[in-house]
Amino acid sequence: MSDTAAIAQLESPATGNPGLARSLTAPGLVAIGLGATIGAGIFVLTGTAAAQYAGPALSLSFVIGGIACGFVGLCYAELAAMIPEAGSTYTYTRACLGVLPAWIIGWDLVLEFAMAAATVAVGWSGYAQSLAADFGLALPAALASAPGDGGLVNLPAAGIVLVLTALLTRRTREASLVNGLLVVAKIAIILAFVGVGAVHLQPELWHPFVPENAGAFGTYGWSGVFRGAAVVFFAFVGFETVATAAGECRAPQRDAPVGLIGSLAISTILYVAVAAVLTGLVPYQELDVADPIAKAIDRLAMPGLAIVIKIGALIGLTTSALTALYGQGRIFFAMARDGLLPPLFCRVDPETRAPVASQVVIGLFTAAVAGLVPIDILGELVSIGTLLAFSLVCGIVLILRRTQPDRPRPFRVPAATPMAVLGILSCLVLMASLPADTWIRLAIWLVIGLAIYAGYGRHHTRLIRAG
């Protein structure tokens, strides 16, 4: 089966089942991208990267990370405009490489999106409990954290996942509106931090801008700047959620590239600004905390603003979890539509036009993970799953440029070959830097996925293998 025929097959939905509602526009897609991207990274990772690796040059690390992520973003934009269907990388892989590779990457995306939502939910729980403590409120220890962290269940983490799942069973337009309002509020609070902080900057804290290397690769110096870029790269994870929404756009060929590139550009600008202000308010050595922005505001002796910032962090983490759950629901929808998962997961409610059953199952699973698994394990799983998906996206752009050079491309990656190659190399270098146990967990996850494919997917798929 040719790649052209495979893509045409993707654009023909399964009969007897209503498609997803096409109600999203470019502003809605930008909001989805910002909601997914600006979350745990800007509220948590900034402190760690500055204190351990880059020092005041953290803003430069964000520039480097943004450029590296930009290579991937451009490739996503070309594919999302060319193949405007739900499913993101899974959809592109099945169009280009066939059924088994599509299943593998789809199963990998389950790891990325579901674990990302769980990770953000655990971070949300931490900020929520911190804010409650400001008002003298506290949960019993057994309900405040996962078993590995000294509790029995992280009740707030599981609870926020269930609330957001309920929202996502409504119409996409309603969920998009709520997400858009939260994103506006989140950006307003971030801009308030940048504005207030800029008035109280201590420029001497930026000197030396690149601290002298401490004797080990990655600990300050220019190697620290690049190690910091590798760390903050994960702060950009989430913009690809826009690609999963391409099947719900009114004009996907135009709006999907705008949503992808627009959300990535805005996120990068905000990250650089926050990093510059943060390291100009607090000595970088003191920023290795879970709430670095709140710590910076506390230095200004503005308790009222500190509460507002914590509320902003909660909003940011809420939108990140919302969009991760949204993306996972669309991945399951696409896989079930092709017969690789039971048809339950591609059933669309005739009234809301949302994949309700898929969203509920994902929400229950993610809530359980968020409530029972410590955040450090979750974060490692998200990282390697994301990088694998990113590298495949860049590779698929190269393959389709060779096999389908004449196919209409509403958006084209400029200098496609070097851009895609740089994207692949960036991802592979970062994957190589992850610890061995992360690779082992990925291997175990993929083996489980292959067993499910062998037992169900290959017998029920409606796709013909490409080739």
UniProtKB/TrEMBL annotation:
The keyword Cell cycle does not apply. Keywords: Membrane, Transmembrane, Transmembrane helix, Transport. One of its GO terms (cellular component) is membrane. The keyword Membrane applies. It is a multi-pass membrane protein. GO terms for molecular function: amino acid transmembrane transporter activity. Its main location: membrane. It is found in: Membrane. The chain crosses the membrane at residues 29-54, 60-83, 95-124, 151-169, 181-201, 221-246, 258-284, 304-327, 356-375, 381-401, 413-432, 438-456. InterPro entries: AA/rel_permease1 (IPR002293). This is Basic amino acid/polyamine antiporter, APA family. It comes from Methylobacterium pseudosasicola.
